[in-house]
Amino acid sequence: MKLLASCLKALPWLMVLLLAAAAGGCGGGGGGSAGAGMGTLTISLTDMPACGFDEVNVTVRKVRVHRSSSASDTDGGWTDMTLNPARKINLLDLTNGVLETLGEMPLVAGHYTQLRLVLDPNTGAGFANSVAPQGGVLTALATPSAVQSGIKLIHEFDVTPGRRVDLVLDFDACRSIVQRGNGTFGLKPVIKVRPFLLNGVSGFVDAALLGANVMVTAQQNGDVKQSTAPNPLTGEFLLSRLAPGNYDVVFTADSRATAVITAVPVADITSIVPVSTDAARITLPPSATQKVDGKVTLNPASAGTDASVAAKQKFGASPTVTVKSVIADNLAAGAYEITLPSGAPQLGAYSATLPIVFTAQAGMAGLYTIEAAASGYATQSASVNISTTDKTQNFVLVP
Q1: How many CB atoms lie within 10 A of CB 93?
Q2: How many CB atoms within 10 Å of residue 195?
Q3: Cys bridge to 227: 135, 217, 248, 266, which one at CB 3.0-4.6 A?
Protein backbone atom coordinates (compact mmCIF):
# COMPACT_ATOMS: atom_id res chain seq x y z
CA MET A 1 0.00 0.00 0.00
CA LYS A 2 1.16 3.46 -0.81
CA LEU A 3 1.86 5.67 2.22
CA LEU A 4 -0.29 8.77 2.48
CA ALA A 5 1.22 12.22 2.36
CA SER A 6 2.25 13.71 5.70
CA CYS A 7 -0.12 16.64 5.28
CA LEU A 8 -3.16 14.37 5.61
CA LYS A 9 -5.21 14.51 8.77
CA ALA A 10 -4.84 10.75 9.33
CA LEU A 11 -2.00 8.23 9.15
CA PRO A 12 -2.09 5.59 6.40
CA TRP A 13 -4.82 3.09 7.20
CA LEU A 14 -2.52 0.12 7.72
CA MET A 15 -0.19 2.02 10.06
CA VAL A 16 -3.16 3.20 12.10
CA LEU A 17 -4.56 -0.31 12.41
CA LEU A 18 -1.23 -1.69 13.56
CA LEU A 19 -0.69 1.14 16.03
CA ALA A 20 -4.18 0.68 17.44
CA ALA A 21 -3.61 -3.03 17.83
CA ALA A 22 -0.34 -2.44 19.66
CA ALA A 23 -1.47 0.46 21.86
CA GLY A 24 -5.16 -0.05 22.52
CA GLY A 25 -4.97 1.48 25.99
CA CYS A 26 -3.76 4.93 25.05
CA GLY A 27 -7.24 6.46 24.88
CA GLY A 28 -7.80 6.96 28.61
CA GLY A 29 -10.42 5.55 30.93
CA GLY A 30 -8.77 2.17 31.58
CA GLY A 31 -6.69 1.18 34.52
CA GLY A 32 -3.76 -1.18 34.95
CA SER A 33 -3.60 -4.85 34.13
CA ALA A 34 -6.58 -7.12 34.59
CA GLY A 35 -6.57 -9.29 37.72
CA ALA A 36 -7.60 -12.91 38.14
CA GLY A 37 -10.97 -13.55 36.52
CA MET A 38 -10.66 -10.27 34.64
CA GLY A 39 -10.25 -9.48 30.97
CA THR A 40 -9.90 -6.22 29.05
CA LEU A 41 -12.16 -4.50 26.54
CA THR A 42 -10.70 -1.97 24.08
CA ILE A 43 -13.09 0.35 22.20
CA SER A 44 -12.23 2.24 19.01
CA LEU A 45 -14.32 4.51 16.79
CA THR A 46 -14.37 4.66 13.00
CA ASP A 47 -16.68 6.10 10.34
CA MET A 48 -18.35 5.30 7.09
CA PRO A 49 -18.12 8.50 5.04
CA ALA A 50 -20.63 11.34 5.47
CA CYS A 51 -22.65 12.61 2.51
CA GLY A 52 -22.28 16.29 1.68
CA PHE A 53 -20.42 17.49 4.80
CA ASP A 54 -17.00 19.00 5.44
CA GLU A 55 -17.18 18.16 9.16
CA VAL A 56 -19.27 15.89 11.38
CA ASN A 57 -18.21 16.39 15.00
CA VAL A 58 -19.32 14.39 18.02
CA THR A 59 -18.01 14.67 21.59
CA VAL A 60 -17.69 11.32 23.34
CA ARG A 61 -17.93 11.38 27.14
CA LYS A 62 -18.33 7.73 28.10
CA VAL A 63 -18.66 4.13 26.91
CA ARG A 64 -20.82 1.80 29.04
CA VAL A 65 -21.06 -2.00 28.99
CA HIS A 66 -23.71 -4.32 30.48
CA ARG A 67 -24.46 -8.03 30.51
CA SER A 68 -28.16 -7.50 29.81
CA SER A 69 -29.45 -6.28 26.45
CA SER A 70 -32.60 -4.93 28.16
CA ALA A 71 -30.87 -2.94 30.94
CA SER A 72 -31.87 0.73 31.05
CA ASP A 73 -29.34 3.50 31.58
CA THR A 74 -30.40 3.83 35.25
CA ASP A 75 -30.13 0.12 36.12
CA GLY A 76 -27.24 -1.24 38.14
CA GLY A 77 -24.55 -3.50 36.71
CA TRP A 78 -22.94 -1.07 34.27
CA THR A 79 -19.17 -0.85 33.78
CA ASP A 80 -18.14 2.61 32.55
CA MET A 81 -15.12 3.93 30.69
CA THR A 82 -15.12 7.72 31.11
CA LEU A 83 -13.06 9.95 28.83
CA ASN A 84 -11.64 12.80 30.88
CA PRO A 85 -11.78 15.27 29.29
CA ALA A 86 -14.53 14.32 26.88
CA ARG A 87 -13.11 13.92 23.37
CA LYS A 88 -14.36 15.88 20.36
CA ILE A 89 -13.92 13.85 17.18
CA ASN A 90 -14.47 14.80 13.55
CA LEU A 91 -15.84 11.56 12.12
CA LEU A 92 -14.63 12.48 8.65
CA ASP A 93 -11.06 11.96 9.85
CA LEU A 94 -11.89 8.28 10.42
CA THR A 95 -12.65 6.90 6.96
CA ASN A 96 -10.64 4.28 5.00
CA GLY A 97 -10.15 2.09 8.06
CA VAL A 98 -8.63 4.80 10.29
CA LEU A 99 -9.41 4.29 13.98
CA GLU A 100 -9.74 6.59 16.99
CA THR A 101 -8.96 4.51 20.08
CA LEU A 102 -11.27 5.67 22.87
CA GLY A 103 -9.60 3.59 25.58
CA GLU A 104 -9.77 0.31 27.42
CA MET A 105 -11.45 -0.98 30.56
CA PRO A 106 -11.04 -4.05 32.77
CA LEU A 107 -14.11 -6.29 32.75
CA VAL A 108 -15.12 -9.29 34.81
CA ALA A 109 -14.93 -12.35 32.58
CA GLY A 110 -18.31 -13.30 31.15
CA HIS A 111 -20.87 -12.73 28.42
CA TYR A 112 -21.92 -9.14 27.56
CA THR A 113 -24.76 -8.01 25.31
CA GLN A 114 -25.09 -4.21 25.43
CA LEU A 115 -22.88 -1.17 24.93
CA ARG A 116 -23.81 2.50 25.18
CA LEU A 117 -21.95 5.41 23.59
CA VAL A 118 -22.59 8.56 25.64
CA LEU A 119 -22.13 11.98 24.01
CA ASP A 120 -21.85 15.39 25.64
CA PRO A 121 -24.86 17.72 25.20
CA ASN A 122 -24.61 20.98 23.27
CA THR A 123 -24.35 23.55 26.04
CA GLY A 124 -22.74 26.97 26.32
CA ALA A 125 -21.13 28.85 23.46
CA GLY A 126 -19.35 25.89 21.85
CA PHE A 127 -20.93 23.04 19.91
CA ALA A 128 -20.05 19.65 21.36
CA ASN A 129 -21.79 18.06 18.38
CA SER A 130 -21.89 19.89 15.05
CA VAL A 131 -21.87 19.64 11.27
CA ALA A 132 -20.49 21.78 8.46
CA PRO A 133 -22.23 21.25 5.11
CA GLN A 134 -19.92 21.33 2.10
CA GLY A 135 -18.91 24.96 1.68
CA GLY A 136 -21.14 25.98 4.60
CA VAL A 137 -20.67 27.13 8.17
CA LEU A 138 -20.41 25.05 11.30
CA THR A 139 -23.81 24.59 12.93
CA ALA A 140 -25.07 22.79 16.02
CA LEU A 141 -26.26 19.22 15.59
CA ALA A 142 -29.54 18.61 17.40
CA THR A 143 -29.16 15.55 19.61
CA PRO A 144 -32.08 13.75 21.28
CA SER A 145 -31.94 13.28 25.04
CA ALA A 146 -31.30 9.56 24.51
CA VAL A 147 -27.88 10.45 23.10
CA GLN A 148 -26.85 11.94 26.45
CA SER A 149 -28.11 8.84 28.32
CA GLY A 150 -26.26 6.65 25.85
CA ILE A 151 -26.76 5.42 22.29
CA LYS A 152 -27.90 1.83 22.82
CA LEU A 153 -25.92 -0.78 20.89
CA ILE A 154 -26.91 -4.44 21.12
CA HIS A 155 -23.87 -6.64 20.50
CA GLU A 156 -22.88 -9.93 22.13
CA PHE A 157 -19.25 -10.60 23.05
CA ASP A 158 -17.34 -12.71 25.56
CA VAL A 159 -14.55 -11.60 27.88
CA THR A 160 -12.14 -14.32 29.03
CA PRO A 161 -9.63 -14.06 31.90
CA GLY A 162 -6.33 -12.50 30.94
CA ARG A 163 -7.40 -11.79 27.34
CA ARG A 164 -8.33 -8.60 25.48
CA VAL A 165 -11.38 -8.06 23.30
CA ASP A 166 -11.10 -5.32 20.66
CA LEU A 167 -14.34 -3.82 19.32
CA VAL A 168 -14.85 -1.06 16.77
CA LEU A 169 -17.88 1.26 16.80
CA ASP A 170 -18.54 2.05 13.14
CA PHE A 171 -20.45 5.37 13.14
CA ASP A 172 -22.28 5.78 9.82
CA ALA A 173 -22.34 9.58 9.59
CA CYS A 174 -23.96 9.46 6.14
CA ARG A 175 -27.11 7.80 7.49
CA SER A 176 -26.96 9.40 10.94
CA ILE A 177 -27.28 13.07 9.92
CA VAL A 178 -30.76 14.18 8.89
CA GLN A 179 -31.29 17.59 7.29
CA ARG A 180 -34.64 18.98 8.38
CA GLY A 181 -36.98 21.15 6.35
CA ASN A 182 -36.34 24.10 8.69
CA GLY A 183 -32.63 24.15 7.80
CA THR A 184 -31.41 22.41 10.98
CA PHE A 185 -29.58 19.09 11.25
CA GLY A 186 -30.53 16.25 13.58
CA LEU A 187 -28.58 13.24 14.81
CA LYS A 188 -30.25 9.84 14.36
CA PRO A 189 -27.30 7.60 15.24
CA VAL A 190 -26.61 4.57 13.04
CA ILE A 191 -23.72 2.62 14.56
CA LYS A 192 -22.54 -0.92 13.96
CA VAL A 193 -20.32 -2.81 16.40
CA ARG A 194 -17.61 -4.70 14.54
CA PRO A 195 -14.74 -6.94 15.61
CA PHE A 196 -11.23 -5.62 15.11
CA LEU A 197 -10.33 -7.26 11.79
CA LEU A 198 -7.24 -6.57 9.69
CA ASN A 199 -8.94 -7.44 6.41
CA GLY A 200 -10.96 -5.89 3.60
CA VAL A 201 -11.06 -4.84 -0.05
CA SER A 202 -8.50 -2.32 -1.31
CA GLY A 203 -7.69 -0.42 -4.47
CA PHE A 204 -7.37 2.91 -6.23
CA VAL A 205 -9.81 5.10 -8.17
CA ASP A 206 -8.95 7.43 -11.04
CA ALA A 207 -7.76 10.86 -9.88
CA ALA A 208 -10.38 12.42 -12.18
CA LEU A 209 -13.08 11.14 -9.81
CA LEU A 210 -11.67 12.87 -6.74
CA GLY A 211 -13.75 15.88 -5.76
CA ALA A 212 -16.86 14.34 -7.36
CA ASN A 213 -18.19 12.70 -4.18
CA VAL A 214 -16.84 9.31 -5.23
CA MET A 215 -18.03 6.51 -2.94
CA VAL A 216 -17.05 2.84 -2.70
CA THR A 217 -19.32 0.33 -0.96
CA ALA A 218 -19.17 -3.38 -0.16
CA GLN A 219 -22.62 -4.95 -0.48
CA GLN A 220 -24.40 -8.25 -0.16
CA ASN A 221 -27.76 -8.56 -1.94
CA GLY A 222 -28.05 -4.78 -2.06
CA ASP A 223 -27.38 -4.35 1.66
CA VAL A 224 -24.46 -1.98 2.25
CA LYS A 225 -22.07 -3.65 4.70
CA GLN A 226 -19.25 -1.11 4.51
CA SER A 227 -18.51 2.09 2.62
CA THR A 228 -15.71 4.59 2.27
CA ALA A 229 -14.57 7.63 0.34
CA PRO A 230 -11.13 7.25 -1.30
CA ASN A 231 -8.26 9.30 0.01
CA PRO A 232 -8.76 12.78 -1.53
CA LEU A 233 -5.10 13.09 -2.58
CA THR A 234 -4.12 9.58 -3.64
CA GLY A 235 -7.41 7.93 -4.62
CA GLU A 236 -6.56 4.92 -2.44
CA PHE A 237 -9.38 3.17 -0.59
CA LEU A 238 -9.92 0.37 1.91
CA LEU A 239 -13.23 -1.26 2.77
CA SER A 240 -12.14 -2.62 6.14
CA ARG A 241 -13.45 -5.01 8.80
CA LEU A 242 -15.61 -7.24 6.61
CA ALA A 243 -16.99 -10.55 7.78
CA PRO A 244 -15.58 -13.34 5.57
CA GLY A 245 -17.73 -13.85 2.48
CA ASN A 246 -18.34 -12.60 -1.06
CA TYR A 247 -19.13 -8.94 -1.71
CA ASP A 248 -20.30 -6.80 -4.62
CA VAL A 249 -18.10 -3.68 -4.68
CA VAL A 250 -19.96 -0.63 -6.04
CA PHE A 251 -18.40 2.63 -7.26
CA THR A 252 -20.43 5.85 -7.64
CA ALA A 253 -19.60 9.52 -8.27
CA ASP A 254 -21.37 12.69 -9.36
CA SER A 255 -22.21 12.73 -13.09
CA ARG A 256 -20.59 9.33 -13.61
CA ALA A 257 -21.98 5.91 -14.46
CA THR A 258 -22.08 3.31 -11.69
CA ALA A 259 -19.56 0.45 -11.74
CA VAL A 260 -19.98 -2.89 -9.98
CA ILE A 261 -17.46 -5.68 -9.35
CA THR A 262 -19.33 -8.86 -8.45
CA ALA A 263 -18.38 -11.63 -6.01
CA VAL A 264 -15.20 -10.20 -4.52
CA PRO A 265 -14.03 -12.91 -2.07
CA VAL A 266 -12.86 -11.98 1.42
CA ALA A 267 -11.67 -15.38 2.57
CA ASP A 268 -10.89 -14.76 6.23
CA ILE A 269 -10.18 -12.17 8.92
CA THR A 270 -6.71 -11.38 7.53
CA SER A 271 -7.47 -11.22 3.79
CA ILE A 272 -6.98 -7.87 2.03
CA VAL A 273 -8.18 -8.28 -1.55
CA PRO A 274 -7.07 -5.71 -4.17
CA VAL A 275 -9.52 -4.92 -6.96
CA SER A 276 -7.34 -2.30 -8.68
CA THR A 277 -3.79 -0.98 -8.58
CA ASP A 278 -2.09 2.40 -8.65
CA ALA A 279 -1.09 1.74 -12.26
CA ALA A 280 -4.54 0.49 -13.36
CA ARG A 281 -7.19 2.43 -11.45
CA ILE A 282 -10.98 2.16 -11.43
CA THR A 283 -12.54 4.82 -13.62
CA LEU A 284 -16.18 5.68 -14.26
CA PRO A 285 -17.39 7.00 -17.63
CA PRO A 286 -19.31 10.31 -17.69
CA SER A 287 -23.09 10.05 -17.49
CA ALA A 288 -26.07 12.34 -17.72
CA THR A 289 -28.19 12.46 -14.57
CA GLN A 290 -31.88 12.63 -13.74
CA LYS A 291 -33.76 13.02 -10.48
CA VAL A 292 -36.29 10.91 -8.65
CA ASP A 293 -38.25 12.85 -6.05
CA GLY A 294 -41.44 12.54 -4.07
CA LYS A 295 -42.78 12.05 -0.57
CA VAL A 296 -42.89 9.17 1.87
CA THR A 297 -45.99 9.33 4.06
CA LEU A 298 -46.20 7.24 7.22
CA ASN A 299 -49.74 6.03 8.00
CA PRO A 300 -50.20 6.30 10.91
CA ALA A 301 -47.83 9.22 11.31
CA SER A 302 -44.82 8.91 13.61
CA ALA A 303 -42.99 12.16 14.36
CA GLY A 304 -39.91 10.36 15.67
CA THR A 305 -39.50 8.01 12.70
CA ASP A 306 -37.53 8.85 9.56
CA ALA A 307 -38.06 6.92 6.35
CA SER A 308 -35.17 6.01 4.07
CA VAL A 309 -35.31 5.84 0.28
CA ALA A 310 -32.86 3.73 -1.74
CA ALA A 311 -32.32 3.51 -5.50
CA LYS A 312 -31.35 -0.03 -6.54
CA GLN A 313 -30.39 -1.77 -9.78
CA LYS A 314 -30.42 -5.47 -10.68
CA PHE A 315 -28.09 -6.77 -13.37
CA GLY A 316 -29.87 -9.83 -14.77
CA ALA A 317 -28.67 -12.91 -12.92
CA SER A 318 -26.22 -10.81 -10.90
CA PRO A 319 -27.19 -9.49 -7.45
CA THR A 320 -29.11 -6.29 -6.83
CA VAL A 321 -26.99 -3.32 -5.68
CA THR A 322 -27.85 -0.05 -3.97
CA VAL A 323 -26.66 2.94 -6.01
CA LYS A 324 -27.69 5.71 -3.61
CA SER A 325 -29.88 6.22 -0.55
CA VAL A 326 -31.26 9.25 1.29
CA ILE A 327 -33.38 10.06 4.35
CA ALA A 328 -36.88 11.45 3.73
CA ASP A 329 -37.35 14.66 5.72
CA ASN A 330 -40.21 14.19 8.18
CA LEU A 331 -40.29 17.95 8.84
CA ALA A 332 -41.03 18.51 5.15
CA ALA A 333 -43.87 15.99 4.87
CA GLY A 334 -41.45 13.17 4.05
CA ALA A 335 -39.91 14.84 1.01
CA TYR A 336 -36.92 13.21 -0.70
CA GLU A 337 -34.81 13.71 -3.83
CA ILE A 338 -32.15 11.44 -5.37
CA THR A 339 -29.93 12.38 -8.30
CA LEU A 340 -28.93 9.28 -10.29
CA PRO A 341 -26.91 8.47 -13.42
CA SER A 342 -29.09 7.73 -16.44
CA GLY A 343 -26.22 6.21 -18.45
CA ALA A 344 -25.39 2.52 -18.72
CA PRO A 345 -23.86 1.03 -15.54
CA GLN A 346 -20.62 -0.93 -15.81
CA LEU A 347 -20.40 -4.56 -14.65
CA GLY A 348 -17.26 -6.62 -14.03
CA ALA A 349 -16.72 -10.06 -12.50
CA TYR A 350 -13.96 -10.31 -9.89
CA SER A 351 -10.71 -11.86 -11.02
CA ALA A 352 -7.44 -12.15 -9.13
CA THR A 353 -5.78 -11.13 -12.41
CA LEU A 354 -6.04 -7.35 -12.60
CA PRO A 355 -7.32 -5.12 -14.08
CA ILE A 356 -11.00 -6.05 -13.81
CA VAL A 357 -12.74 -5.94 -17.20
CA PHE A 358 -16.00 -3.94 -17.19
CA THR A 359 -18.84 -4.19 -19.70
CA ALA A 360 -21.49 -1.49 -20.21
CA GLN A 361 -25.00 -2.76 -19.41
CA ALA A 362 -26.91 -0.75 -22.01
CA GLY A 363 -30.21 -2.47 -21.23
CA MET A 364 -30.08 -1.22 -17.63
CA ALA A 365 -29.51 2.47 -18.42
CA GLY A 366 -31.81 4.61 -16.29
CA LEU A 367 -33.74 1.66 -14.83
CA TYR A 368 -34.07 1.64 -11.03
CA THR A 369 -36.15 0.19 -8.25
CA ILE A 370 -36.96 2.88 -5.68
CA GLU A 371 -37.44 1.39 -2.23
CA ALA A 372 -38.94 3.19 0.79
CA ALA A 373 -38.55 1.81 4.31
CA ALA A 374 -39.10 2.90 7.90
CA SER A 375 -38.84 1.10 11.22
CA GLY A 376 -42.20 -0.49 12.11
CA TYR A 377 -43.61 -0.10 8.58
CA ALA A 378 -43.76 -2.47 5.60
CA THR A 379 -41.18 -1.69 2.91
CA GLN A 380 -42.55 -0.62 -0.48
CA SER A 381 -40.85 -0.41 -3.87
CA ALA A 382 -41.59 0.85 -7.38
CA SER A 383 -39.80 0.59 -10.73
CA VAL A 384 -38.86 3.83 -12.53
CA ASN A 385 -37.22 4.68 -15.84
CA ILE A 386 -35.20 7.91 -15.79
CA SER A 387 -33.29 7.31 -19.02
CA THR A 388 -34.69 10.53 -20.53
CA THR A 389 -36.54 12.46 -17.82
CA ASP A 390 -37.00 13.02 -14.09
CA LYS A 391 -39.60 10.99 -12.21
CA THR A 392 -41.82 11.57 -9.18
CA GLN A 393 -42.57 8.58 -6.99
CA ASN A 394 -44.63 8.86 -3.81
CA PHE A 395 -45.07 6.20 -1.13
CA VAL A 396 -47.53 5.60 1.70
CA LEU A 397 -46.06 3.20 4.25
CA VAL A 398 -48.28 1.24 6.61
CA PRO A 399 -47.32 -1.14 9.46
Answers
A1: 16
A2: 13
A3: 217
